[in-house]
From TrEMBL:
Protein name (Swiss-Prot/TrEMBL): Solute carrier family 15 member 1b
Topology of the protein relative to the lipid bilayer: Multi-pass membrane protein
InterPro entries named in the record: MFS_trans_sf, POT_fam, PTR2_symporter_CS
Source organism, top-level taxon: Eukaryota
Lineage, uppermost ranks: Eukaryota, Metazoa, Chordata, Craniata, Vertebrata
Entry-linked CDD domains: MFS_SLC15A1 (cd17412)
Main location: membrane
Gene Ontology biological-process entries: oligopeptide transport; protein transport
Compositional bias annotation for Basic and acidic residues: 690-712
Organism: Xiphophorus couchianus (Monterrey platyfish)
Family: Belongs to the major facilitator superfamily. Proton-dependent oligopeptide transporter (POT/PTR) (TC 2.A.17) family.
The keyword 4Fe-4S belongs to this UniProt entry's keyword annotation: no
Gene3D superfamilies in the record: MFS general substrate transporter like domains (1.20.1250.20)
Listed PROSITE patterns: PTR2_1, PTR2_2
Amino acid sequence: SKFSLLTIKPTIPSWVTIFGYPLSIFFIVVNEFCERFSYYGMRAVLVLYFKYFLKWDDDFSTTIYHTFVALCYLSPILGAIIADSWLGKFKTIVYLSIVYTAGQVIMAVGAINDITDGNKDGTPDNMTFHIALSMVGLLLIALGTGGIKPCVAAFGGDQFNDDQEKQRSTFFSIFYLSINAGSLLSTIITPILRAQKCGIHTQQQCYPLAFGVPAALMVVSLIVFIVGSGMYNKTAPSGNIMVKVCKCIFFAIMNRFHNRSSQIPKREHWLDWAEEKYDKLLIAQVKMVLKVLFLYIPLPMFWALFDQQGSRWTLQATTMDGNFGLMVIQPDQMQTVNPILILIMVPVMDFIIYPLISKCKLNFTPLRKITVGMFLAGLAFVAAALVQLQIDATLPDFPSSTEQQAKFINMVNRPINITAGKYAFQLYDLSFDLTIDSGSTETIRLPGGTRNTIVIVEEADRMTNIKVSIKVRSKSKSNHIFFNGFGMTLNITVGEEGFGNIVSKNMSTYVDVPQGTAKFVIKNAAGSTCVFKREFGFGSSYTFIIPPNVTFEENVTFESNLCKLIEVEDIKANSIHMAWQIPQYFLMTSGEVVFSVTGLEFSYSQAPSNMKAVLQAGWLLTVAVGNIIVLIVAEAATLPDQWAEYVLFAALLVLVCIIFAIMAYFYTYIDPVKIEADFANLEPEDEKKKNLEMTKKDMVENHDEKKRRSSNEGKIVQTNF
């Protein structure tokens, strides 16, 4: 029997093993690390890319983000079917990794604004082109990452022989560690890359680099995996169990529909109607699977909240102060709190919390743990709502799309009287008559949804105004504007950014300035300069007025001839610190540990030995449905305040949590191994009895059919049994 076993599954040669472990798993672990770095690195900056590069609003950015995540968790079902039914795991991983890599490269190319920036002003001239590339790239990434998700871990398990259970267990621990390591490093590194400045014509936030590095890691992942090809144990596809389960369920439903007559005896369970085609063991296994899948119904609501860490919570961080003293945290880097806390909370739960609960004689069953995890996630969103309330109190009163705002700056050296029509403006009346002192009246038009600065200057004994409009900007950036009150054209630069040449008594364009100390170099036509230094917080916005009496000198240093400018604060810097997000991350991660880890353990303990993949697909499907819930709420809900949306999600999860607790109360735990053993030891007499019953049923049905025919023909037919 030993030799027959070796012919079915060849022993891995000793020359490709190290310390009893197949050398092939090294390539698989490195492949998984690079792939997870690629996926989470791209995803970390994705919602900010939507908002700041593609210029989408918060709601639409959230919708597309969660649509993408949902596709990533729907495609594993397709990948599992392809691998098990046609290509096998190795070819499926290779082919879909090529698709995956192509998607990452397309995303990086689509983020290069210089491709369509014909006028070299820093803004793409053909945004449709960039959107199209981005959507194609995301579609390919979703197909690739989801398609290989159910294959890589299982392919790694295939590298071990049957007598290497201990090594296989260690491999899965290392495999899980590589996932978290890739996730943690990528969510730290890619936001740093995104914050860099790059570009051919103008310096912009470097999204091509933030997407390009994950693309490069995906290329490395593919190459490493292919290099180890000669060392892999490749099993041929043997048919997908999910397909068998679906066929069994479909046959049972159709058979019951065809035998819906009241004369046909009822069966104990509706799946028993599949007995004509499938054996009782398979039917019993499907029953166990459906019993667990029924409990999955409320679970998507947890993932609806959990995956908003990468969307709503990241957008929330853009309105907060990320200065931690020794380092400055980017908004998208706050997501690293989750993997860090996971590494801390898993051992804390396993070695401290759970043992303490056990010592207190509390029956903390897996389903109760899942219920607690959902409740903790709801509390996390309550905490997020409280933080949002504090943030809203610091935000300026931005105009809606049906309102406009105007600010007047008096550059005349005496008081003046202004009549600006009415104080409230309607969308259909975007103008008002402006009268300065007793001069002539001028009609001012303000674009909807803008904040406007109107500077009043005096030219040739006549006062006039200069208007500058700005769309509502995010508070994650500091953007500033200069007014040249000097008597000649001035050029202003800050670092590598330039405000351009500003004509006398005119305004510059808005320029984004990083948080920290900024040094503005102001140069006149003669080449003389002065320097203006200032500390900026996150999200501040100022109008700086260069007065007529500013002095310029030649060959000045940054510490000499500092300009004295007039400052007008348009928007205050973010004052709520990002550290206030840590409690909500702590609650969410705690909920994830007791929900996700326990949920998988419970599912596996209640699943038949050959159908764990079915429950894995069902579990991933709950993640996909959860993200679909988010995009539905984001589009359908018309809540004016973000904190109200957080409370809505928390309330929905608590409601679902109560429903799940009731379902769990009536659930009866089973032992799949014992049930399968009982069916495996089925006596031959039982099989004969089953066949006899089926024969008798067929004879009865034939008798009824003959009787119906004889009645139609007016004849009497007697049948003997």
